[in-house]
Amino acid sequence: MLFLISALLSRGLEDIQADRDDPSQPLVTAPFGHASQEIVNLLLCGEAVPNVFDGKMDLGGGMSLKGIPNNVEVGFLTLLESLNLCKVGLYLKCPKWPIWVVGSESHYTVLFALNPNVQEENELEERESKIRRAFDAQDQSGGGGFISVEGFQQVLRDTDINFPSDKLEDLCNAGIIVWSEFWQALLQLDKRAGGMKDPTGLMGKKQFTIFHFNGIAKSVLNGNASAGGSCPIQRPRLCKLNVTVPPRWTQDEYLADVVSASTSSKDDIILSLAPPGQTNQHAPLVDCIRTRWPRAVCSWVGDVPSIV
Q: What residues make up the domain containing 62?
């Protein structure tokens, strides 16, 4: 509590109240005394904003919702995003350092990498990030993934995308543009026209090592033959994960591997993407990792990494 009070006073109580969307709500939530997202964001970005998306969301009528205002040094991932309950923006997903606070239903843990290259993107990935950021800037649906035709025209101008007139008419026909349909259209649009179709072939997969730390002590077995067997000890948990991110699908592969695989389970599809000889393992932490690296395949040795 002293640390929290120090952080609040460092920012200034008047500024804290101005940062928030609803200053009447408590910063520490009942009944268990959990930190609100405003406290988490205060520690990550220096402002007690209540949302995890980038920038402000204009709701019209002079009303807006406040998100993360700028780049941060330490990021944030949450299990809630994997459950489609929120959308974390790129500021928190792509921090300066490869360190992320991971939120679960009741506890915070830390995900980190020793090699900052895990944050690097190739040319097409950078292009996707730019387009996604431009799309999200026009998304006034609260993270619903759709924008107005007017907002869509602004995205095309900001990202130098030139759709053929017939394709543009198809996308705008419904009066709203959904991200998934927009993205599939981009996969079919040549890179020279601002799209994502790469004549050189698929983007290469990524492989890297990442670590997860949970400060809550857990009983583990410490083998000690000289002491006459194994004895349980209490210690925090540190887990090393090997992560493989497969190449992104082209449109043809998306249709072949996903749509036509309706008889296969989601886990079967993801498992098929794992490199030969590597077993895909799953845990709630993996769902969090996939909000940062979609379709990531993870493996580890020993106990399942826990985010609670």
A: 1-117
